[in-house]
Design brief:
With about 575 residues, the protein is an all-alpha fold. The protein folds into 2 domains: about 325 residues, no CATH class; about 220 residues, Phosphate transport system protein phou homolog 2, domain 2 (Methane Monooxygenase Hydroxylase, Chain G, domain 1). It is built from 24 helices and no strands. The longest helix has about 35 residues. The chain is elongated. About 0% of the residues have low confidence.
């Protein structure tokens, strides 16, 4: 039998249809669920077992372990979950992805779901034009579901008919009988397929389709499934490339978990156990199905059983080694410094300390760290004004965006911690200090917002090919130096206790700030009238020095908040 190029393209086209449907279905349910997915992941990470449950639930819901892992990496990057918490979620995602194999086997092959595809499309398309967003998102989900199974149906029809052409299997069968080395070979094939498709679910669909169609035997399919477990980790790696060191470590944990699992399973099925009888026993005694899992009709179920057994067993084994996985990933990805660490609460955690006084002391230390982090944005903006190289400019702008997100996280986490402290028995002294810290973190977060808007102004200026004169640059540099001095004074006040210390230096710097802003505003109008720069340049320049003045206003608020008469 000759397999022509048209046959290959038909299989690839059906596979593309399946992937498109899965992406649409996953995106639709994620949009419809809104913040509930984040709440599930955020709330159920108090211990590793709950983390596994949350990862399983979200992956089962969105039918994409890649979506869960990318979501988890982004949460680690933003500081929403810790590295240890992320490990539990990633382990749960591996169990959740096994549901896909069962859906494909039971719904995709045992039931002619393709017959319902056109009615589902007829139902979903009008929903896409609804005014309510939630209806649109559910329409996307239903349409994606229909396209997914239509693609699966087309994939099954596109594979060659081998019933009367058994000679095509000779090549694969020869390699399938090679024991350990053939297992390694097809693990590599499965890994490559998952990497290319960027979806373990799509790779699984292709594997089951080939197995059910009789093109590949059960042993080859099992080895490919193991490889697909490794290949799917590439998604988390790609998502972690622009992220901080913690997100990169989360991606490494996912890879370590899957690679270790595949290694012990390969050794087991190659040298110790005979896999098909075990899968057959599960099928007959637990699922009450007498179908031979080595036959084309039973291979889909056999693969689903194997995939579930492997991932559940791997999680049950490695959940006890999460601290080791975290430690190993930390050694694999070294921090490049403070900027790489970017958001990490160093002093406050989930629970309070034995006394409210000690908890408040730790909160104040975290606020000092918040101020130090925010102060770095001033230098980043200065570098952004100086930078001429487009690649370097974009890199610095990306860092500023990241820092702005960090300031949001700092404010949120410290505020939540202060609220917890406030729920206990407090003296008047402690109540005043908590109020002061709330005021400080609010002002520091606004400073982060201002710097981010300044970065957007500079990006817009660059995109429109608007340039500052050297005189404009020098005046901005002078302003940045004044803000540097103000941050140093703020840090000095935060190092002190809450009491009525002198803030004369801070007031003097605030006066200098106001005077400089007024001076630049006057000279700016004169220079514009004299034609030293055009109106567009003038507008961006004015936005920047006015923003600097606002930074100074918020910083004096921080110094004043520390001056409590107690």
């Amino acid at each position: 039998m000759n397999v022509e190029i048209l046959d290959i393209l038909s299989i690839l086209g059906a596979l593309a249809f399946f992937i498109f449907g899965m992406k649409m279905m996953s995106d639709g349910i994620q949009k419809a669920a809104g913040g509930s997915l984040k709440k599930i992941l955020g709330a159920m990470t108090k211990n590793n077992f709950l983390g596994v449950v949350s990862g399983f639930m979200v992956t089962t819901l969105v039918q994409s372990s890649s979506a869960t892992t990318v979501m988890t990496v982004s949460f680690v990057n933003a500081g929403l979950v810790s590295l240890t918490q992320s490990a539990g979620i990633l382990l749960g995602a591996n169990i959740g992805t096994t549901i896909t194999a069962w859906i494909i086997d039971k719904v995709g092959f045992d039931i002619n779901i393709s017959a319902a595809c056109l009615p589902l499309i007829a139902l979903s398309v009008p929903m896409l034009f609804a005014k309510r967003k939630k209806i649109k998102f559910y329409g996307e989900f239903i349409l994606g579901f229909a396209i997914l199974f239509w693609g699966l149906h087309e994939m099954k029809d596109a594979v060659p008919d081998l019933k009367n052409n058994p000679e095509v299997l000779n090549f694969l069968q020869a390699y399938a009988d090679g024991g350990f080395f053939s297992n390694i070979l097809f693990v590599g094939v499965g890994t490559l397929i998952a990497v290319i498709l960027q979806s373990s679910s799509a790779a699984m669909a292709l594997t089951i389709t080939l197995a059910v169609s009789g093109i590949i035997p059960f042993e080859i399919a099992a080895a490919m499934v193991l490889g697909e477990n490794i290949g799917t980790t590439i998604t988390a790696w790609l998502a972690s490339i622009p992220a901080n060191v913690h997100a990169k470590r989360a991606a490494r944990i996912h890879s370590l978990f899957n690679i270790i699992g595949v290694v012990w399973m390969i050794l087991l099925i190659s040298f110790i156990i005979d896999l098909p009888p075990i899968i057959q026993w599960v099928n007959e005694n637990i699922l009450r199905d007498s179908t031979d899992i080595l036959s084309p009709e039973g291979r889909g179920t056999g693969i689903a059983i194997f995939h579930s057994l492997f991932n559940i067993t791997n999680v049950l084994l490695l959940i006890w080694f999460i601290p080791w996985l975290v430690k190993t990933a930390t050694k694999m990805v070294k921090s490049k410094g403070e900027e790489d660490e970017v958001f990490k609460l160093g002093y406050i955690g989930e629970g309070l300390l034995p006394s409210n006084e000690l908890s408040l002391m730790e909160a104040k230390k975290e606020v000092k760290q918040f101020a130090r982090t925010t102060s770095k944005m001033n230098n980043l903006i200065r570098n952004l004004v100086k930078e001429n190289d487009n690649k370097s400019f974009q890199k610095i702008a990306g860092k500023i965006k990241n820092f702005e997100e960090v300031t949001d996280r700092f404010e949120e986490e410290i505020a939540k911690y202060l609220v917890k402290i406030g729920q206990g028995a407090l003296t008047e002294n402690m109540s005043l200090r908590i109020q002061a810290l709330h005021k400080i973190i609010s002002n520091l977060e606004r400073v982060g917002d201002i710097y981010f808007r300044m970065a957007l102004t500079l990006e817009k200026k660059r995109d429109n090919k608007i340039w500052f004169t050297q005189s404009q640059r020098n005046k901005l540099y002078g302003y940045f130096e004044l803000i540097d001095k103000t941050f140093l004074v703020v840090q000095k006040h935060l190092d002190n206790e809450f009491k009525a210390n002198s803030i004369d230096e801070a007031i003097d710097l605030e006066n200098q700030n106001n005077q400089l802003q007024s001076k630049l505003r006057v000279s700016h109008i004169e220079e514009l009238e004299n034609g030293e720069y055009d109106f567009k340049s003038a507008m961006h320049y004015r936005d920047l020095f006015m923003a600097c003045e606002k930074v100074g206003d918020h910083l004096i608020n921080v110094s004043e908040a520390m001056q409590l008469k107690i």
